Amino acid sequence: MSSPVVHAFFMGRALATAIAEQVEQSMTETLSNLGRFDAEQRESLRNFTDEVMARVQQQESAVAQDPTTTSPGAAASPQDLQATIDNLRAEIAQVRATLQQYRASLN
Question: pLDDT of 74-97, one tens digit each?
Answer without folding.
Answer: 556 777 888 999 999 999 999 999
